[in-house]
Design a protein that fits this description.
Elements lengths: L1 E8 L4 H17 L4 E8 L5 E9 L3 H10 L1 H4 L3 E9 L10
Antiparallel strand pairs: 1-3, 1-4, 2-3
Length: 96
């Protein structure tokens, strides 16, 4: 089952994001094939304001565990994280 993690950064947190980014990327890479897509949300000025992470997990509890393990979450970067069940309808490279 796929889940979209919609993460919103705390205000004025770009420095924290930059500091923790290497650990965050390593964590996402460690998820292997469960990590489907990821990237930052940007302001109109191209400053990061949050993240979209799409993962595959057995259920919502497993998705919550993955979200909580993200170094960005552990460092307190996010003001909120919304987890939504998601279906990849178009341009899914794994669709047959």
């Amino acid at each position: 089952m796929l889940f979209a993690l919609l993460c919103t950064d705390n205000a004025n947190s770009v420095d924290l994001r930059v500091k923790v980014r290497p650990e965050h990327l390593a964590y996402l890479d460690s998820l292997g094939s469960a990590m489907k897509a990821a990237g930052p949300f940007l302001s109109d000025e191209a400053s990061p304001t949050g993240s979209l992470v799409i993962i595959e997990a057995a259920d919502r509890k497993a998705a919550e565990t993955i979200a909580a393990g993200d170094p960005y979450a552990k460092a307190g970067l996010f003001a909120s994280v919304e987890i939504k069940t998601w279906r990849w309808a178009l341009k899914n490279p794994e669709a047959k």
